[in-house]
Amino acid sequence: MSPRPSPVRSLLKAVLGLVGLGLNLGWCCQPALSHGAAGGDEPLRPGEFRARPVVTIEGHGGHENNLGGRPQHYAIDGQFGAVLEWGLPHEGRFAIEAQIGPAFVWGEAEHFYGRVHVGEEGHDDGHDEEHAGHEERHGEMDHHGDHDDDHGEGHAEHHDEDHEDDHGEAHAEHHAEDHGGDHDHYHGSGSPYRRADIKGYLKTLYQPNDRLAISFTWWPYYVTQDQGEDIQGLKNEIAAQVIWALGDGDVNFALGDGLESIVDGLFISVENRTGWESEGTYLGNYTDSWLGFGFYIDQLNVTISGGPRFYTPGSYSGLSQRTDWGGELELEYPIREGVVLFAHWEPVYSTQGGPGWGTGWQHHFGTGVSLSF
Questions:
Q1: pTM for the complete prediction?
Q2: Residue 361 domain-assigned (yes or no)
């Protein structure tokens, strides 16, 4: 019996198949779907087909400031793939984009928002609870010593002194090992280089007209080896999104557009994302119901969005549902035909704490370039 193909190998074959199809049919020079500039300057006529290869290089990072130890992750992604587009009536279109490539990881690997480090408290809370546990056990021993007074006060004092010395030394050593060893090794400052993982991206987009867009996206991520919090295997994240533009989207302040044109750049975005860890744990899902505003300053495209994040953690975490708040700033600038620079920053504020989780900010940011040929 032949060995079962790995998910990564199957995904790679699918992407290479799309790239091969595009190379046989001819390409158009346009920016990539994954950074909001898909479709090209010229609308496709109904039934018309367009295909193009794309390459995306991005450096990005994440800071989880609401967690104990403030874990961080950084990566440099190099992905290549293809965008396939079909023209629909009313200037609509249907598009598929697939990309895959290596992700060079520093610190932790990129992961689904809200992942809880099970069994790990916040740095201060965990230390206090651990110290309280030691004190509780110490108090029980003292009570036992007081109960057995006939052993003599000298023996009790000797027991207390030895126990306090041993307790202090053991607690200090244990705390140093826990928080200066594994904890700092994987969450500490510096975020040393870890390994090369494999990251994929598959998106389908249905846009029946220039106001409505519906998309489904899958982000497979293969961790190549066990390391710290990362477990070898295939992470999965899927999303469904609906965007409704309130205007025609044509706002350019460099051309004299004023406040009366703002409505043309407003849009409403509703997106649901769901994630699974590499060993199969269901991490939960969240829904962003955000209001956005997009505009141009000459050729620089700016998109600002934000609103509530309705988050439902997986049962593994022991946390309840909550409403967080977040936003995103996205920038895109074409430096030549088929070459687009981009940057983005997404801050999210968590409103409730719990075991392994705390209130406060998380940040994700990145910058890179998209090429199409």
A1: 0.74
A2: yes
